[in-house]
Specification:
Elements: H1 2-10, H2 14-38, H3 43-55, E1 68-69, H4 75-85, H5 87-106, H6 118-140, H7 149-154, H8 156-163, H9 167-185, H10 198-213, H11 225-228, H12 243-268, H13 278-294, E2 301-302, H14 304-312, H15 319-334, H16 344-357, H17 361-370, H18 372-387, H19 390-409, E3 412-417, E4 424-432, H20 437-445, E5 453-463, H21 465-479, E6 487-489
Parallel strand pairs: 4-5, 5-6
Antiparallel strand pairs: 1-2, 3-4
């Protein structure tokens, strides 16, 4: 009795955290495996990343209820890296990204990620979602997906038509469709049934159906936990001298950090506990990624699906996410052969559903009506990711967002009061920058040449050098037309 009281006093929320950890574990298993397979890596590596996310990152300070592991949002980038550089070099990329994240956290740069345009982030996630959906429709039809995003979309109709004449493809498609149907309908199931997480129920039912009906469907290849963990060889670190690899490291770092910190902000809105310390969270994510890289595993980010499940299951402290990592370790160590029964199209269905949730379909209409510029940034970012690549698409989105902000910040207005006699009163308000210089000059040069002008600049918040020189030159030209010199009024 005394021991129980001591344990309760030291861990007052142990019961809630224990229950929440089991829920998160059950949600994490199919997602970890699905993300790993979709990334072109052994299924066990996704579990390794989930274990590190729980036992390493979970113990560190930052965001107390956020859960980390392999994320669908990184699938496209990881797949491209594995195809271009190979699985051994993936560990080097993840390790280097983690080191940069730690440096950024120590330099207190975590809070600056909050300044990234929300439209760029949503566009990034929407683009990733589109590529995931297009890419996973191929394993759903027992077909090999093309490499580029555009080819994935362009070849879908032909692949779908071909699948109707193939029994294996139709069986695979039926399993994927059934998995998605379970995920969509699970929220309508009785409350007691819904104690089993939707992703686990969907994969479990698909596995039972394939086994019971003896369906000709591909299943996960199992190598064993120790067989899958392959630390990167020393020779792989020489690849860091290449510009292409460095660009991939930067892409991993920025996208993983942005996804983690935006997830932290979202999780903070779900509970009333301690708020996220962004720089410490960045260090925690970096530490986890360095460990994942050293083990040759997938990169980790904070994952909103698992984090939300953690909060909704009643978690109170970081103990829940640490325990979920322990359950993943026990599962991977004791029951790895269970993975061999999971159908590949069921995992494809899980990821298609996850990809669809990344696309902000409901908010697009209101965003277009209220902030068309932001909607354009979102759409351009998403399309660029599909058409070009993840990294270039995000850069295009960021550049467009900066250009849009600069254009809006340079708003300037000219009010003219002409009473027919006396000087013309002209007043400029806003920000006079070179971006609006043509408009300013057109407005000033349209004023009558034979009338004196009083130009009031006191309403300008900012005047750059180009605009000031141009207005001085206009005033000098206007004053040579035989009228009184232009009178410039500036702020005191």
């Amino acid at each position: 009795m005394t021991d129980n009281r001591t344990l309760t006093s030291r861990f007052p929320h142990l019961k809630q955290d224990f229950a929440a950890s089991l829920v998160v574990f059950l949600v994490a298993v199919p997602l970890c495996v699905g993300v790993s397979v979709a990334s072109g890596a052994p299924a066990e590596l996704g579990l390794v990343t989930g274990i590190v996310g729980g036992l390493v990152t979970g113990l560190m300070r930052g965001s107390s209820l956020q859960v980390s592991g392999p994320a669908a949002g990184m699938t496209v980038l990881v797949y491209e890296a594995v195809q271009e550089f190979g699985l051994p070099v993936l560990g080097v990329i993840v390790l280097a990204s983690g080191a940069i994240q730690i440096a950024m956290g120590l330099l207190r740069l975590g809070r600056y990620f909050r300044a990234i345009s929300v439209s760029v982030v949503e566009g990034m996630l929407a683009g990733i979602g589109l590529v995931i959906i297009a890419g996973q429709l191929y394993p759903a039809m027992a077909a090999k997906a093309p490499d580029s995003g555009l080819d994935k979309i362009a070849e879908l109709p032909g692949t779908l038509v071909d699948s109707f004449g193939d029994t294996g493809a139709l069986s695979s498609l039926a399993v994927a469709a059934g998995t998605i149907a379970v995920l969509l309908l699970w929220k309508h199931a009785p409350e007691k049934v819904r104690t089993v997480p939707g992703p686990l129920a969907a994969v479990g039912l698909a596995t039972l159906a394939v086994f019971a009906l003896d369906m000709p469907v591909a299943t996960v290849e199992v190598q064993g936990l120790l067989g899958s963990v392959q630390p990167p060889p020393l020779s792989a670190f020489g690849e860091l001298a290449g510009i292409g690899l460095l660009g991939t490291v930067v892409a991993f770092t920025l996208i993983a950090s942005a996804e983690s910190l935006f997830s932290a902000a979202a999780v903070d809105r779900l509970h009333s506990g301690p708020r996220t310390e962004y720089n410490k969270e960045l260090i925690a994510q970096g530490t986890g990624n360095m460990v994942c890289g050293a083990l040759g595993a997938l990169p980790m980010t904070a994952v909103i699906v698992r984090s939300a499940a953690n909060v909704q299951a009643g978690a109170r402290t970081k103990a829940s996410r640490v325990l979920h990592g322990a359950w993943l370790l026990l599962f991977a160590a004791l029951l790895p052969d269970v993975l061999a029964y999971i159908p590949i199209p069921a995992l494809a269905g899980i990821l298609i559903h996850a990809g669809a949730k990344l696309i902000p379909v409901r908010s697009l209409g209101s965003l277009w009506r209220e902030h068309r510029g932001e909607a354009v940034v979102l759409a351009v970012t998403a399309v660029s990711i599909v058409a070009v690549s993840m990294f270039e698409g995000v850069l295009i989105g960021l550049a467009l967002a900066v250009a849009k902000s600069a254009w809006e910040a340079s708003h300037v207005k000219l009010d003219v009061v002409d009473e027919g006699t006396g000087p013309i009163e002209a007043r400029l308000t806003g920000n006079a920058t070179f971006l609006r210089l043509p408009k300013i000059l057109d407005s000033l040069e349209s004023l009558p040449q034979d009338r004196p002008v009083r130009l009031d600049l006191s309403g300008l918040h900012h005047v750059d050098h180009a605009c000031r020189m141009a207005m001085d030159n206009w005033a000098a030209r206007h004053s040579t037309a035989g009228t009184d010199p232009v009178k410039l009024v500036t702020a005191a």
